Amino acid sequence: MKTTDYQTASEIVIFGALGDLSRRKLLPALYQLEVCNLIHKDSRIVGAARQEHSLDEFKEIVLESLQSFVKEELNQEAVDRLIQRLVYQQLDFKNKVSFGNLYQALVNGNKTRVYYFSTPPAIYGDICHGLNDASLITDADRVVMEKPIGHSLESSKVINDQVAEFFKEEQTYRIDHYLGKETVLNLMVLRFANSLFTNNWDRNSIDHVQITVAESVGIEGRWGFYDEAGQMRDMVQNHLLQILSLLAMEPPADLSAMSVRDEKLKVVKALRPINRDNIKEKTVRGQYADGFLNGVAVPGYLNEEGANQASKTETFVAIKAEIDNWRWKDVPFYLRTGKRMPIKHSEIVVHFKQQPHNIFKESYSELPANKLTIRLQPDEGVELQMMNKIPGIASQMNIQENKLDLSFSETYNNERVVDAYERLMLEVLNGNQSLFVSRDEVEAAWLWADSIIDAWQGTNEEPKPYAAGSWGPVSSISLIARDDRQWVE
Ligand SMILES: NC(=O)C1=CN([C@@H]2O[C@H](COP(=O)(O)OP(=O)(O)OC[C@H]3O[C@@H](n4cnc5c(N)ncnc54)[C@H](OP(=O)(O)O)[C@@H]3O)[C@@H](O)[C@H]2O)C=CC1
Ligand SMILES: O=C1O[C@H](COP(=O)(O)O)[C@@H](O)[C@H](O)[C@H]1O
């Protein structure tokens, strides 16, 4: 049986096919699947966008995207196969009448249609109406929605309702691209395929957990979009809460979408609310100021192109999150994420509890606790900090802290790290929802995030400045130091 035998031949329709996401991520992802023969031989890729283009011009744009955004040398056979699949349809997504043209383009095609909304969410509703009026929605179709889904719980409900009018939840694939990252997927393997961790993954063994998602980039010309969102909506409400959920969830009964999503949802629902009463104690928000990155001067957030000097938007967030359930009582999860930090570096550090009694006082007055570091990106891997005897006759019990380091690139012979969008695109084509976010999860995450945003506004909590190229405002150090702990640098 071939890997695509369980895939139905599909019309993969990308709305916004000429946009940034499509060119940088979606088309290269489809190319990589093509290289691996993971797209059904009869599937077609339909680019839908506002501008007039001939098919040949669209093929040229796709080729340029691959040349610009695929890191490896292109495989010409795969390029040719991908190009053969292309169809282009000019369309104004807000004009229902023009969907008749899309109908003509799809009418003799495959029965299953995958509609990828690579557009601002504000027009998802228009697209759905256009598709419906043109009789282009059946139960066999799927819809893929990009983040952010809304700006708040209320606005996310509006968007979800607009789409739910035409697509059932089991047809809806909400992207959080962190769920497609190899290392994020590996969290489940680490936790549930290794009894060592499965059996020591709770308040009895773990002291606290740190999750850091640091980015060295700034706003990258997206000031207008970003200023409306800030790091809380852009990164915490989605990516960091997804990582937290996978780390903290109970073992799902199996890997089905329903089992995994239900367990993740329970974690988000159990997050202790942060509100105006505890906001100062539990959170820090920051905004990068002028600074240096790798010795090069970089502008602060307010000096970026297009900036409004009065902006109070945060580019850094640190949070002490607590989960009110049996497993995690008194085990804080410290989250921090920011733009313009010294390096791009995302990792989880699980700090285990100290031994109750120390018989090695001659080497260590206080025994360091074990630490499990999960390097999400780059230099993907898993590292376990542990104590070991230094070999030698001179001393009977001279001990030292060492690490077991499982570097993925070394272990898997520099195997190319699959981009998250490749994984997620494949799962959509295969009709597997387990790596996508349910509506309930999105709403529970907004409920928690909205309360924090409201508390910042209600208490006039202004973002603290931090120099670009630093690890965030000094108060983020105090956030964790108050608990007699420190960030792992
Ligand atoms: N870019 C990225 O890295 C990421 C993007 N996202 C999300 O993906 C979505 C797309 O983002 P991105 O690609 O950056 O945005 P872009 O603005 O680059 O692309 C959106 C595309 O939609 C088209 N479009 C908008 N309105 C209409 C309309 N009425 N009729 C026809 N075409 C229309 C635009 O066409 P035109 O150019 O003619 O206006 C444009 O090609 C957004 O929801 C974004 O938040 C999420 C994560 C990362
Ligand atoms: O969703 C987003 O993610 C990127 C970071 O993604 P990564 O895969 O490079 O870690 C972030 O830069 C962007 O602001 C945000 O919208």
Automatic annotation (TrEMBL):
NADP(+) binds at residues 50, 92-93, 147. One of its GO terms (molecular function) is glucose-6-phosphate dehydrogenase activity. The keyword 4Fe-4S does not apply. It comes from Litorilituus lipolyticus. Pathway: Carbohydrate degradation; pentose phosphate pathway; D-ribulose 5-phosphate from D-glucose 6-phosphate (oxidative stage): step 1/3. Gene3D superfamilies: Dihydrodipicolinate Reductase, domain 2, NAD(P)-binding Rossmann-like Domain. The active site is at 239 (proton acceptor). Belongs to the glucose-6-phosphate dehydrogenase family. Residues 13-186 form the Glucose-6-phosphate dehydrogenase NAD-binding domain. Catalyzes the oxidation of glucose 6-phosphate to 6-phosphogluconolactone. This is Glucose-6-phosphate 1-dehydrogenase. Substrate binds at residues 177, 181, 215, 234, 339, 344. InterPro entries: G6P_DH, G6P_DH_AS, G6P_DH_C, G6P_DH_NAD-bd, NAD(P)-bd_dom_sf. Pfam families: G6PD_C, G6PD_N. Signal peptide: none annotated. Keywords: Carbohydrate metabolism, Glucose metabolism, NADP, Oxidoreductase. Residues 188-487 form the Glucose-6-phosphate dehydrogenase C-terminal domain. The lineage of its organism: Bacteria, Pseudomonadati, Pseudomonadota, Gammaproteobacteria, Alteromonadales. It is an enzyme of class 1 (oxidoreductase).
